[in-house]
Amino acid sequence: MSLTNFKKHSYLYQFITFFLLIAIPSSVLASSLNLEATGNHALDLTSHWAGYFALFLFALAYSLVIAEDYLHLRKSKPVLVAAGVIWFILGYVYTQNGMQELAKSVFEHNLLEYAELLLFLLVAMTYINAMEERKVFDGIRVWMMSKGLSLRNLFWLTGILAFAISSFANNLTTAMLMCAIILKVAKGNKKFINIACINVVVASNAGGAFSPFGDITTLMVWQAELVGFTEFFALFIPSVVNFIVPAVIMSLFISSEPSQIILEEFEMKRGAKRIVFLFILTIITSVIAFNSFGMPPVLGMMTGLGYLKFFGYYLRKSLPRSLEKKRTEAQQRKDEKALKRLGQVVPFDVFSKIAAAEWDTLLFFFGVVMCVGGLGFMGYLTLISEAMYTNWDPTYANIVAGVLSAIVDNIPVMFAVINMNPAMGLDQWLLVTMTAGVGGSLLSVGSAAGVALMGQSKGNYSFFGHLKWSWAIALGYIASILTHLWIN
């Protein structure tokens, strides 16, 4: 399309032209900005060109994030650029008002919050990658395929395992593991694959809602010291209800015919169980650091990374001796397959597990934290907080926050609520933690697990296939809220 036609037909062009003409006049861009500022108080930019432009930029960036699956554009790219531009604008405005030190200190505060979460998540992802490389999760998959379960039993077992595993592993890894099992066992049964994947998405999100390690949002709430470690477990029963209600409804539409028995030779790699133990020890260390010494949980996680690095050193040093022992045993048994496998063994490398972390997600998180932090510094979070948590009952506001997380990723929703810091009791902080975690199950694009499974299942699980059962998921969402309000 030519520029002339673009101008003629594009409402976007008209909007941008109008926006630039009325929102950024030269008098506003001048150094004598008409803003109220005293001492070290932040400037109110909610009615200023800088605020309007930042909102527009964030909305544009997030539109590209939502369209990631269609544009094949990594979600971290638009939010990283948006975050940079927003803070450059803030730097310019505050410099013009002689308050650059305030802007710098607020930026560094947001950066510190991100750094703590980055290192925490990086260690957790490294352990998950190490367990995956040592074939811990493959062991679960092979065991399930060997049982010849009925499709209904498979539906329930994958759901329950997804719920349990996602309480300590991220829901993305959990969902993909269960999806791999479903695709293998129920190959060609599109109807079952779709409904089983929906169940896995719901279970993964629900399982992550009652544990500080289950989801990024729960981790954020814990690190902000809004909910204590053990206090999260009050959400266990509501989370179970959130999973069980739609699962019961959907299971009524699944046949009880047995699935195909698939036998596969399998052996976990050396050190697999010990890495699982070290991961549990790392979680315990993190809890002790926070609860007993008042230190950030990331201290315990980084110490736990040290455990894994030392164990990796032991695995590398003892590898030749272990291989020689296994090779001798295989030769005595005349096991050619075992000898071939031993010839393909590579040393354990911790740094490769760190490199395999979900860096796009981690960088996306940086963009979100800095964008939301910048908008909050401009004054928008105060406005939203007053609109939602002053004019509304906190219960209704927290329920709406959960519904929003089905459309917008739950990370910016939860980060915004934390930065608003409305005056709420523990019961309401638990409520918004749960709704932000499980609300993403209402749509397939509402959580990382749903988006990943749409790609992994190659069309067997889709947006509209999920939407068909959104009513059942909504019943579970409502039931979990009522359960929480009743017991907590």
Work out the number of β strands: 0
Are there runs of 5+ residues with pLDDT below 50, and where?
1-39
Mean pLDDT over the residues: 80
SSE series: HHHHHHHHHHHHHHHHHHHHHHHHH
Percent of sequence in beta strands: under 5%
Cα shape: globular
Put simply, the count of helices is: 25
Describe the largest sheet. Answer: none
Helix content: over 70%
Name the structural class.
Answer: mainly alpha
Measured between the Cα atoms of the first and last residue, the distance is 58 Å
> What is the radius of gyration computed over CA atoms, rounded to a whole number of angstroms?
25 Å
Explain this structure to me?
The chain has 488 residues and is mostly helical. It is 73% helix and 0% strand. The chain has 25 helices and no strands. α10 (171-185) packs antiparallel against α11. The longest helix has 37 residues, at 297-333.
What key attributes describe this structure?
488 residues; mainly alpha; 73% helix; disordered N terminus
Write the layout of secondary structure elements.
Layout: H1 3-9, H2 11-23, H3 26-29, H4 49-66, H5 68-71, H6 76-96, H7 100-133, H8 136-145, H9 151-165, H10 171-185, H11 190-207, H12 216-223, H13 236-251, H14 272-291, H15 297-333, H16 336-342, H17 350-355, H18 359-378, H19 380-390, H20 394-407, H21 410-420, H22 426-438, H23 448-456, H24 463-467, H25 470-487
Helix pairs in contact: 4-6, 4-18, 6-7, 6-18, 7-14, 7-15, 7-18, 8-10, 9-10, 9-11, 9-13, 10-11, 10-23, 11-13, 12-21, 13-25, 14-15, 15-16, 18-21, 19-21, 20-21, 20-22, 21-22, 22-25
